[in-house]
Amino acid sequence: MTDLSKEARGLLSQKAYISRLTEVKRQCSIDGTEKFLFALEDGHRIESVLIPEEDRLTLCISTQVGCGMGCTFCLTGKSGLVRNLRSSEIINQVLTIQRSLTEGTRLTNIVIMGMGEPLANYNNTMKAIEILTHPLGPAIGARRITLSTSGLVPLIKRLGNSGLNINLAISLNASTDEQRNQIMPINKKYPLAKLLDSCREYPLKRNRMLSFEYVLLDGINNSPEDARRVARLLKGIRCKINLIPFNEFPGSAYKRPSEESVLAFQEILASHHYSVFIRKSRGADILAACGQLREE
Ligand code: SF4
User: Fold this and answer.
1) Residue 101: φ, ψ to 5°
2) I need a surface site. Which of 23, 45, 229, 249 has the fewest CB within 10 A?
3) Global pTM?
């Protein structure tokens, strides 16, 4: 930057540096989903997933290297937490991928659902969202950003009071504490009643709703009784429900349920007047689908 004085350049190099991600691998699924493997400056690796749909182009980004939450159905959780990402490393996933798109193509939605529990890296994730939504930055609308959490109750409250009007998704995945304790260890600390109370108290803006994600594991949490219990649990919460038939990965202990049982689960929730969507699995052939991300 020779257009700046030597003094100013000296000051800048003391105070700031330009961070970047190195693209290690880019894999394309038969359904058009693309998985990016990035190397960080310290050599650790993270993944981001680009999901093109008819009317939107969504990017799923990571907030941690690995994850410490230990959900038993998730490949990312198997490696444990390595470290939090810095806010620049979170933002750079968006900027690097936006730059790689063909001219005139823009990301329309960001989902913070990749590797890691975003609320466990609260400060860096919030700073990244502030910058991504800032009018002088990428200026992505807060309504187009969704953060997903496994249920860190005190931080859900903090997010609600933060004034960042992003969308919140809760990874529910069970209809009883017993079940949830088994597949999501965080439930032992923040059981369903506490989690759902924090959802009931969450300060939702008008016309906005919470999302509940529910990974369907065959024979574990996908019975008609489970669906009826979920309907009771979510009573009084303005929400929609996304059902995610489990995406199997090599060595996974769980099975993907049959299509009929997924439809039956949806039917029961719909009969209780919930908006229920079955998430199409994207990029499963390249291990880019929900719960399949890891450092390679
Ligand atoms: S599902 Fe999310 S919170 Fe749970 S282990 Fe995987 S990345 Fe972590």
Assistant:
1) -80, 155
2) 23
3) 0.93
Ligand 1 site, residue 114, Cβ cutoff 6 A: no
Q: Which amino acid is at 152?
A: L
Structure confidence by residue, pLDDT tens digits, 115-134: 999 999 999 999 999 999 99
**Per-domain residue ranges for the chain?**
18-286
Report the separation in Å between the CA atom of 9 and the middle of ligand 1, taken as the mean of its atom positions. 42
Beta-sheet strands, E only, within 22-106: 22-28, 34-39, 45-52, 57-60, 64-66, 81-84
Name the CATH superfamily housing domain 18-286.
Aldolase class I (3.20.20.70)
Report the SS3 class of residue 32: coil
- Mark whether 67 is an active-site residue: no
Question: 132 near 94, Cβ under 8 Å?
Answer: yes
Q: Does the Cβ of 69 fall within 6 Å of ligand 1?
A: yes
DSSP state of 151: -
The CA 150 to ligand 1 mean position distance, Å, reads 7
